[in-house]
């Protein structure tokens, strides 16, 4: 433009002009990935503060979403230990009514010892657990929430779907868990 037409403006001015003259598409293209029933579940931890038995506590939720049906279940725990991780997976499998072929997880240390995504080295305790239960672990690529978008969307949505339950006062974790199960059944 400078050489052929003597344009004296900046590159940003050209970009602004083109953006006004040729606006982007109104709808972005989305590729929807569907899986057959029983093939994949996506699991994700999240943390929140709640009052249990009159005192504020930090709790951790393992949110599981079945990739085919989008059925979502939430299990609460006071810790993020390997034992809690495995116990919560078993609790989710009971709620699913079976064990999916693959479970897609974040690169948490309870699941992944080193690395991330396809090159991840899984934690030995979780490998043994997965083999005993009969599922394969599918870790996500680092910093790629879209790899398990169904559960990531539910984590954001859970704050809305379970929001009143997350901020309520509870007498015990068991009472809270019963309310989560009831709400999951309603959803």
Q: How would you describe this structure in keywords?
A:
single chain, 187 residues, alpha/beta, two-stranded antiparallel ribbon, 39% helix
Largest sheet: 6 strands, mixed
Low-pLDDT sequence parts: none
Give the helix/strand class. Answer: alpha/beta
- Tell me the radius of gyration: 22 Å
Level of helix content?
Answer: 25-40%
Mean pLDDT: 85
Annotation field: number of helices: 7
State the separation between the terminal residues, measured CA to CA.
Answer: 58 Å
Order of helices and strands: HHEEEHEEEHEHHEH
Number of strands: 8
Estimated share of beta-strand residues: 15-25%
Identify the overall geometry. Answer: elongated
Structure overview:
The chain is 39% helix and 25% strand. With 187 residues, it is α/β, with parallel strands linked by helices. A hairpin with a 2-residue loop joins strand 1 and strand 2 (55-66). The protein is elongated and about 75 Å long. The termini are far apart.
